[in-house]
DNA sequence: CCCCGCCTTTATGTATACACTCCAGTTCAC
DNA sequence: GTGAACTGGAGTGTATACATAAAGGCGGGG
């Protein structure tokens, strides 16, 4: 694999994991030494991270890991509502219910996975992610797909802040099931509204989580 | 200004103008010679264009100017509906009507500009673009703003294909006026729906334009 | 006559050297 | 003592050289 690709994935993973905390400096030479490549591929990786919104130029010459505070999470969810709502709506419009039959069962069985420890949790998220992928694919819109993938990076980052709440995840599974059923039924309006409902509840949970972790809402930046 | 920034803007302008036609190859050395810089800044510029969706990797080692056919225009408008609809909705929700008072008059007067030749046409589009900027700013959502700016690049590209139809532009001004009024009135649903209507009519016109120009719908790729 | 394989060529991917700018620390003048 | 200017350093921005791999052409064989 290309060195720039490896550097990009390594840095991205560390940002999503929180190993590189919000506000951490991303200097070319430092990262090049740490990753064992030259500045050139690191430079390319940093440019991609900035385009993704995972890194932000604090000044003309210093790049930082982007903040992840309540305000940016709200912004993210407003954007997700627009994009994922449209994706669900389009997926319903395409009338290809057979794409979702296997996936529906997988989502229906997902709550049981929450009693299967760490591995089950991973399987739960795999099922949810598979649904996202299928909706994106069914929407059959490359530009929307690109926007969704970008947004999913940030969602993954929020997910790792708010993870591990079985009660919420059980409810989320029901919400996802309703979305799938609306798509299968070809009910575009319901698909969009169910997505809205899911995101609303998910946002509420995410904000409560970070509030619990950082009582002062401005400390996470 | 940095050489990479100049290279990016020059190439972007040529793609939007159509000087670089869809499918044209974007080779690093060729563009570096043409623009009078080394490969390094050109490389960075090409990476940004690819991230923007204005360039597409045809194979592992050849980058081309992205296609601009009926299918990609439809995709663009589905994405625009999601993003601009949400932006209008949020702008209405924020309840800052005073931001739009001057702009409303400007849009109301825009149709008269269509009788003022080339310069008037530019002024017309400046007014429309100013409205887009103000809605984006009023929506107060950095992530949505970034997505909107990306989409606006592609919209500009389509605009130059379908330009110069005074009748359509007069109608578009009325549609924009309705959007502004809905935002000023704080009517989020109407703002979103008026945006939907505007995009629907705009898409119909764009598709008719390229159909007239390329009777075979697949020739523009 | 066609197809497979090798070779050449040409492009990209990476490393490195150099130039330049911005920031900080220090020193001097007021 | 404070402020401003100068100087040093660290980091980015660009150019270039080298490594590498994919694509196309040519030749030989079937």
Mean pLDDT of chain A: 95
User: Major sheet of chain A, described briefly?
Assistant: 2 strands, antiparallel
Q: How are the strands of the largest sheet of chain A arranged?
A: 1-2
Please give the CATH architecture of the largest domain in chain A.
Up-down Bundle
Oligomer: homodimer
- Largest interface (CB < 8 Å): A-B, 26 and 26 residues
Total individual domains of chain A: 2
CATH class of the largest domain in chain A: Mainly Alpha
Domain HTH gntR-type (chains A, B): 1-68
Pfam families (chains A, B): FCD, GntR
Organism (chains A, B): Agromyces lapidis
Protein name (chains A, B): GntR family transcriptional regulator
């Amino acid at each position: 694999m290309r060195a720039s690709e490896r550097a990009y994935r390594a840095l991205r993973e560390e940002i999503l994991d929180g190993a590189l905390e919000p506000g951490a400096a991303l200097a070319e030479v430092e990262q090049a030494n740490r990753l064992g490549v030259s500045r050139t591929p690191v430079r390319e990786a940093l440019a991609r991270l900035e385009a993704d919104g995972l890194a932000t130029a604090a000044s003309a010459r210093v790049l930082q890991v982007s903040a992840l505070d309540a305000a940016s999470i709200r912004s993210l969810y407003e954007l997700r509502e627009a994009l994922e709502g449209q994706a669900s709506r389009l997926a319903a419009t395409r009338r290809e219910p057979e794409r979702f039959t296997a996936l529906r069962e997988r989502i229906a069985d997902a709550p049981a996975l929450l009693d299967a420890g760490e591995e089950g949790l991973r399987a739960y998220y795999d099922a949810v992610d598979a649904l996202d992928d299928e909706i994106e694919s069914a929407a059959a819109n490359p530009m929307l797909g690109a926007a969704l993938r970008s947004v999913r990076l940030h969602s993954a980052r929020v997910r790792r802040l708010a993870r591990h709440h079985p009660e919420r995840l059980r409810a989320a599974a029901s919400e996802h099931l309703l979305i799938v059923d609306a798509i299968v039924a070809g009910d575009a309006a319901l698909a969009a509204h169910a997505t809205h409902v899911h995101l609303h509840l998910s946002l509420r949970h995410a904000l409560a989580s970070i509030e619990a972790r950082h009582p002062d809402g401005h400390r996470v930046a």
